[in-house]
Specification:
This protein is α+β, with helices and mostly antiparallel strands and 165 residues long. It has one domain (29-164): Oxidoreductase, molybdopterin-binding domain (Sulfite Oxidase, Chain A, domain 2, Alpha-Beta Complex). It is 25% helix and 35% strand. The chain has helices at residues 3-27, 46-51, 77-83, 113-116, and strands spanning 31-36, 42-45, 55-63, 66-76, 98-103, 108-112, 126-131, 134-135, 143-145, 159-164. A five-stranded mixed β-sheet has the order 2-1-10-5-6. Strand 5 (98-103) and strand 6 (108-112) form a beta hairpin. The longest helix has 25 residues, at 3-27.
Length: 165
């Protein structure tokens, strides 16, 4: 194989590597997986999320583009943990655990289990599928909203996974 043929083959592989994930992703509905220290790890589709008890929250927070205010509709993060069988750890040890919420772009944030546990911190954390009455694009994942945060740094777009550690 000549060096020109190798270069052409390499170029073809690079093009395929960039185009294939995009084409495949556009055809598959977004899912959100809950894994780690839960009794029944599960991947949820948007339709499954929308069948769960939902909540509406108003939130105002500062972003890098200025202040943002909105009303989000979704399911509480605690409900998602319940729908995944609950924590696979003794209740008295739940305060020692945390969640890693990851967006499609690799952005990750961490929340303590205690802060969202209704029996302890009771902070609201919502996995939203709609903002201000407008549903998100179905090809995208839901968004984590923390209405108690002053800055939007822990809000995650296109959430694809929640791992309990």
């Amino acid at each position: 194989m000549s060096s020109l043929q190798r270069a052409m083959l390499l170029m073809s592989l690079v093009v395929i590597a960039f185009l294939l994930p995009t084409a495949t992703f556009a055809q598959t509905p977004a899912t959100l997986s809950v894994s780690g220290l839960v009794k029944a790890p599960h991947s949820f589709t948007l339709a499954e999320l929308q069948k769960m008890p939902w909540t509406t929250v108003d939130a105002s927070f500062q972003t890098e583009h200025g202040p943002r205010h909105g009303t989000w509709l979704g399911v509480s993060l605690w409900t998602l943990l319940d729908q995944s069988g609950g924590l696979a750890a003794p209740e008295k040890e739940s305060l020692r655990h945390w969640l890693v919420v990851t967006g499609r772009d690799g952005y990750e944030v961490v929340l303590s289990v205690g802060e969202i546990d209704p029996a302890v911190g009771h902070a609201v954390a919502v996995v939203a599928w709609s903002a201000d009455g407008k549903p998100f694009d179905p090809a995208q994942g839901p968004r984590l909203i923390l209405p108690g945060d002053r800055k939007g740094g822990r809000d995650v777009r296109d959430v694809v996974s929640i791992e309990v550690k």
